[in-house]
Design a protein that fits this description.
The structure is a homodimer. By secondary structure, chain A is of the alpha+beta class. Chain A folds into two domains: 81 residues, Beta Barrel (OB fold (Dihydrolipoamide Acetyltransferase, E2P)); 296 residues, 2-Layer Sandwich (BirA Bifunctional Protein, domain 2). In chain A, the strands form four sheets. An eight-stranded mixed beta sheet of chain A has the order 6-10-11-18-17-16-13-12, sandwiched between helices. In chain A, strands 1-2-3-5-4 form a five-stranded mixed β-barrel. A three-stranded antiparallel beta sheet of chain A has the order 7-9-8, with no helix packed on it.
């Protein structure tokens, strides 16, 4: 007999053979109720007499399909035969049949290889899968070419610290903090490119916000008229992603009892200097002078967007020149500002982007002013001698989007096997 | 006026504004012919009088749409106005209007940021984009969940050499050679998973076959009955990928004058021991004893598959136990063999896979026999105490597929910015 997938159970099927994991197991007198999960769904199986099986076992079940309007799928199975495919030698250190695992973060992550089996934990990564699918789809619809750029680089570019060093044969090399320079170069080739790739950041902070390895959703587009073309595209991307999550991920959202934010057709834009004034006047909070905006400032900016525009999304624009990397286009009308922006969602920055400098002389001059050593960046710089298009783009942190949608306490919960200052395992 | 994309030019449109790069420029008397490319296509523009522009310039053109049955798109543009958006300060070191760049590999790669602008070079990566899209699509259709596993790992797992070392804060860590252990663990969670991720290999060989960083297309599936479920799935994946390339990529294949191989409905399988005998008897070649099969052996195996089954694809199966990593399932009928396979395409190995051991005791025993130190792998090993499904999977080298489809001389041509022993730049 061929295996039937749970999602394929329908009117007209009589006998089926199912395979899956026992997610829940109850007995009422002689009757046993098994909640079975395969990679397509869950279904209840009722046995009058049942072989001895354990919660968490992988089993094969043969039985009869019976209509049951009370069941989510519309069916239940009257089990007839059961075979154990794989059983546990020991009980799991926690009960996956409970509604919530209620583990501390460190336990949740220490026992990650099995805590992931809990349906509510799985749901995080089913949503993550939808996020990737929607991003891939919308980027292609908009004419972006998917690219893969190197993660091992010769020079700690972008003038920043926080690079991991690697031994590359006889040389020293670094792990890329972003595909920034490569994706810019590629606007001169494909005009529009996107990349889904690993981002390495050697940030030494141990917080619920920091991870040292994550998956970036990057994009870069040429032939723009202004950086508003970039924010408009990013707006469109979020509309599409949230539509996809709504359509395919509702059951996962339900497990967390969250309502998905709606994405405005036009996400409000506000200049950094203006929002800082509003935060001061309206919420009586002064952003520390050593930073352009701090997490509390982002939270209050978001609160303002919610109160004023009923939006969970907000573009903060025109970040100061001195805070932004050398490739960021200065604002011609006020050179102390740039055409750089952040996208804030539910109080947290999830994307950073800008228009970039596309003229060789301007780039050289901006690097000089910022004291960036062009050594090792010649390959990048030289490319700008050869007719690069006006361009801009963004980098999005993928895991953080899912964290914020589900209101998870730490971004680490949205990474399968997170890496932080203290955690390299599992 | 709004920009019109070249692919959107159609009957009924009169005036258009196009933006793109000048790929070719010819003059016949007073008439100028411009071949313009944007990210959706190419079109010819004819000017009676034209401003001075250069090959490679990015321009904006306003003009009239004229039907022209000789043109590939069915239209040409009678140019009226032209504006230069971005021009080169210097001429490119090569002529992108020529049919072929004819650069030596080292020059092609040294000048990579601009040699990529040649349409024939671009075509490689447009096909690569289709490959990624088709892989993502077919894996989702088959119920695989897309996952991202860590690239920084604590232990040089899989018992192999060739790991890059990194400094991870106060510790030493390694770059992952594959998502192997993680994807196996995840069959216990999602049953079917796939990953598109960076693979790091510190192989010190400088050849046309070796790159030190590439993009792997990995998959792992649970609840299999035998490893033939895995080869059947991989067969299905290639049918879908090649259909997609045929449908969307023909114009890129045409530039290379290649005919796409057809993928058999059932790719032939042959045991390693048998193909070795055939290679000896039929082609009089003895595979060196220190290896299971060498590149020449793979070439001849493939020749046999072509001659005997008219297939460019061949599964070689049952690789010897002593050559395969500890997680590979031994063949119960002959423990000197494993249930491991390679997929050969046009004479070259493009995928490696196997059924894996899924029982804790067997895994411990196989590691012991192979002398693999379980230290640092406890998180992996312990998971097998908890009802893991019978499972198997594969790892595919994405770049090599495109190399072989286009008959490129080196796999490095199929990587945007390749990394080899000598090359860390651009």
């Amino acid at each position: 007999m061929e295996r039937t997938l749970i999602s394929k159970i329908e009117e007209g099927l009589e006998q089926v053979e199912l395979k899956g994991r026992i997610l829940n197991l109850r007995k009422l007198g002689n009757i046993s109720f098994v909640l079975l999960q395969d990679y397509t769904g869950q279904i209840q199986i009722v046995f009058e007499k049942m072989k001895d099986v354990k919660l968490g076992d992988l089993i094969l079940v043969r039985g009869k399909v019976v209509k049951d309007d009370r069941a989510k799928t519309g069916f239940e199975i009257h089990g007839e035969e059961i075979e154990v495919i794989s059983s546990s030698a020991e009980d799991l250190p926690f009960d996956i049949s409970k509604k919530d695992l209620k583990l501390q973060l460190s336990n949740l992550l220490d026992f990650r290889t099995t805590s992931l089996r809990h349906p509510k934990v799985q749901a995080i990564f089913k949503l993550y899968d939808i996020l990737l699918e929607e991003y891939e789809t919308v980027m292609r619809e908009e004419g972006f070419t998917e690219v893969k750029t190197p993660k091992i680089i010769e020079t700690a570019s972008e003038g920043g610290a926080n690079f991991f060093k690697i031994k590359y044969f006889e040389k020293e090399a670094f792990l890329a903090q972003s595909p920034q320079l490569y994706k810019q170069i590629l606007t001169g080739v494909f005009e529009r490119v996107f990349e889904i790739g690993t981002i390495f950041r050697a940030e030494p902070h141990f917080t619920t916000r920091h991870i040292n390895e994550f998956t970036g959703l990057d994009a870069e587009m040429g032939m723009i008229d202004s950086f508003y073309d970039v924010t408009a595209m990013l707006n469109k991307v979020f509309i599409k992603i949230f539509e996809g999550i709504k359509e395919k991920g509702q059951k996962y959202l339900d497990l967390y009892e969250v309502e998905l934010s709606s994405v405005p057709d036009k996400i409000p834009h506000i200049k950094l200097i203006e929002i800082k004034k509003i935060i001061k006047d309206k919420y009586n909070y002064s952003i520390p002078t050593e930073t352009d905006i701090d997490p509390e400032g982002e939270r209050l900016a978001s609160r303002y967007a919610k109160e004023e525009f009923n939006s969970d999304f907000l573009f903060i624009t025109h970040y100061p020149w001195k805070e932004k990397p050398f490739y960021t286009m200065p604002n011609k009308e006020n050179p102390e500002e740039t055409l750089g922006f952040d996208l804030i969602f539910k109080g947290v920055e999830i994307a950073t982007g800008s228009q970039r400098i596309h003229k060789y002389e301007e780039l050289v001059e901006n690097m000089r002013k910022k004291g960036v050593n062009p050594k090792g960046l010649e390959f990048y710089l030289e490319t700008f001698k050869f007719s690069m298009p006006p361009h801009g783009g963004w980098g999005l942190g993928s895991e953080r989007i899912i964290q914020l949608i589900l209101n998870l306490g730490s971004v680490k919960e949205a990474v399968l096997f997170p890496r932080d200052v203290k955690r390299l395992r599992p």
